[in-house]
Write a structure and sequence with these properties.
The structure is a single chain. By secondary structure, the protein is mainly β. The protein has one domain. It contains no helices and 32 strands. The protein starts with a strand and ends in a 24-residue tail after the last strand.
Length: 399
């Protein structure tokens, strides 16, 4: 396992007139991992994987809060980029126990840092920062991977371990900072913008025999156990910061608030399954035990920040103005290509041809043999405010 260090958080600052805080530090990048097995690996016991290889980028530090008549929150630090993960099995991997997978390989980008909040007469929330990119995950199986439940007699009613679990995940974007403005006669609050989620990396799965007459074998026993699971997921976009402004004056006052914008989700990477020499066999025994599951999913867009405003006035004649606009939501990320075999012929982001040479067998209820999906994510919510739909101008007079 390789894990990048988390970025440091910025401190809080305050000043009577002008206060702007520092940015959080960036998360560290994680390194590449390569694991080759030519021998015989066995585990005995529950929750005991044969191989676990993870590269995880460090999360970005939070921006500092700021307070003063004019205050600006600090920006979050960047999420660290994850390294490439490569696992190649030329021997055998066997596990005996509940939820004991054969190969678990994962590359995860660090989350973007949260922005700092702000408070003052004029307050601007800080901006979030980008999530780190999930890197590529490469799996080769030219041998045997078998997971079973070490109970006699054999039971398929318990949760089994996945044969191969390969996943790349982009880090979530940092959320924008909130802002609160209070003042006589006038107050302005603007929520900080969220930042984009990191992209998921490519997942490349190669199942081949070592010779033309040999077979790449994967078998699992137990419920909810995938024979082969390959997935790339984009990180979710950061949410916009909320904002609140309250003002009051003897003859008039004005309060203006703008919710922060949400940001776009990261794109899912390409997920590819290929077979070359020999044949491939994937077999699952148990309910809800899918044979082969391939998926690329875009990250959900960030929601816009909420906005709330109050303006009050008094005296013989009073005029008050309250303007409140909720933050715009971010777009969802695109799903990537899902490819089986030769990707020269791609239709609707999915290609299936004679490039897969082998068998997929499932023997339990609700256990599809093969699932392939490319899913684009939805956008975030447009946040409304507590008063009527924006924009709203309210004028009041009293005598």
């Amino acid at each position: 396992m390789s894990v990048g260090g988390a970025g440091g958080d910025a401190g809080t600052s305050g000043n009577l007139i002008w206060s702007r805080n520092a940015k959080g530090s960036s998360g560290g990048d994680s390194g590449d991992l390569i694991f080759d097995n030519y021998g015989e690996l066995k585990t005995f016991g529950n929750y005991s994987r044969g191989v676990q290889a993870q590269s995880i980028g460090g999360g970005g530090g939070s921006g500092g809060d700021a307070y003063g008549l004019l205050a600006v929150g600090g920006k979050g630090g960047l999420g660290g980029t994850a390294g490439t993960v490569t696992v190649r099995n030329f021997g055998s991997i066997s596990t005996y126990g509940i939820n004991s997978g054969g190969v678990f390989a994962q590359s995860v980008g660090g989350s973007g840092g949260e922005a700092g909040n702000a408070g003052g007469l004029v307050a601007l929330g800080g901006e979030g920062s980008n999530g780190g990119k999930g890197n590529d995950v490469n799996i080769t199986n030219e041998g045997l991977i078998r997971t079973s439940i070490n109970i006699s007699p054999a039971s398929t009613t318990l949760k089994g371990g996945h044969g191969i679990f390969a996943q790349s995940v982009g880090g979530g974007g940092g959320n924008g900072g909130s802002s609160v403005a209070l003042g006589p006669f006038f107050a302005l609050a603007i929520g900080g913008k969220g930042d984009a989620g990191g992209a998921g990396g490519d997942v490349d799965l190669n199942l081949s025999g070592q010779t033309s007459g040999s077979t790449s074998n994967i078998s699992t026993t137990g419920n909810n156990s995938f024979g082969l699971f390959g997935q790339s997921v984009g990180g979710g976009g950061g949410n916009g910061g909320g904002s609140v402004a309250i003002s009051a004056g003897l003859f008039g006052s004005a309060s203006i608030v703008l919710g922060g914008e949400g940001s776009e989700g990261g794109a899912g990477g390409e997920v590819k399954l290929d077979t070359q020499i020999g044949r491939t066999s994937v077999k699952t025994t148990g309910e809800f035990a899918t044979g082969v599951f391939l998926q690329s999913v875009g990250g959900v867009g960030g929601s816009g920040g909420y906005s709330t405003t109050v303006a009050a006035s008094g005296g013989p004649v009073g005029v008050s103005l309250a303007l409140s606009i909720g933050g715009k939501s971010g777009n969802g990320g695109d799903g990537g290509l899902v490819v089986v075999g030769d990707k020269d012929q791609v239709i609707n982001s999915l290609s299936v041809d004679s490039g897969y040479n082998g068998s997929i067998q499932t023997s339990g209820q609700y256990s599809p043999a093969f699932v392939a999906q490319s899913v684009g994510a939805g956008s975030g919510r447009w946040r409304t405010r507590s008063l009527p739909s924006p924009p709203n101008f309210r004028f009041t007079t009293s005598t």
